[in-house]
Amino acid sequence: MALVEFDALTMRYGTEAMRPVLDGVTGRIMPGEFLVVLGRSGSGKSTLLNLLAGLDRPTSGSVRFDGESLFELPDAALTRLRRRRIGIVFQSYNLVPTLTVAENLRLPLGLNGLEERTAVKEWLERVGLSGYEAAWPEQLSGGEQQRVAVARALIHAPELILADEPTGNLDLDNARRVVELLDDLCRAEGRTLVMVTHSREVAGRADRLLTIERGRLVDVAG
Asked: What is the rounded end-to-end Cα distance, in angstroms, of the chain?
């Protein structure tokens, strides 16, 4: 059974006459797979990811998460589902600048009523940042901030990880390190990983590729 199924997703901004950002996209994501969404800038990749996360609502179409229709849920229930079962890694890191590294990692634990115990230290060790608990985001390099963001996305053990061009602001070495980290951690944890990218090199690590052009799904490989 698919973890996520999306059917005829269409997303329009502005008037009906404007070309939709997404135009009738349909697919499924299986548990434990690493799926890469490829496409040029403006093709609709990030819009698809936002819909899969329930951050936006489509003009038409549906998304089912573990058999449950996201857009038929009340807002509070959708927020709980996203908070508990989905982890998101953004291109711009989105760390809270007024919180230390440890406090940023505690956020999803606190929101989900989970005890910290040794989770923060364990996850910082796993992403190669042991001893950084008291550091502020502004004191970290871009690669270090993104590794903190990866730890924050996985620390509460969500089933689905959505990564929106997580290497877009990084140099080549840090980009490779972050992709390898996400891939290795998700496979070790048995998580499902969906990554938006325009990089064919990143796509080489995926179990399956989904290519979008001008809002339409044009190719599924793998």
From this structure: 18
Q: Tokens at residue 162, please?
A: 């959505």
- Rg from Cα positions in the chain: 17
Residue of 215, 185, 217, 8 lying closest to 177 (CA atoms):
185
209 Cβ contact partners less than 8 Å away, ≥ 6 residues apart: 35, 36, 38, 203, 219, 220, 221, 222
How many CA atoms, within 13 angstroms, populate the side-chain half-sphere of residue 188? 8
- The range of the structural domain enclosing residue 125 comes to 4-221
CA nearest neighbour of 83 among 52, 120, 123, 112: 112
DSSP H or E run through 177? helix 172-189
| CATH number of the domain within which 183 lies | 3.40.50.300
Decide: pTM greater than 0.90.
yes
Contact by Cβ (8 Å): 203, 36: yes
For residue 173, give every residue at least 6 positions away whose Cβ sits within 8 Å of its Cβ, in sequence order, or none: 143
The series of mean pLDDT values per 10 residues for the chain, 222 residues long, is 95 76 94 93 90 94 95 94 94 94 94 84 94 97 94 94 91 88 91 90 90 86 66
Secondary structure E strands in the chain: 4-11, 22-29, 34-38, 60-65, 68-69, 86-89, 160-164, 192-197, 208-213, 216-221
Residues in the chain: 222
The rounded distance, in Å, linking the Cα atoms of 150 and 140 is 14
Number of domains in the chain: 1
| Residue 55 identity | L
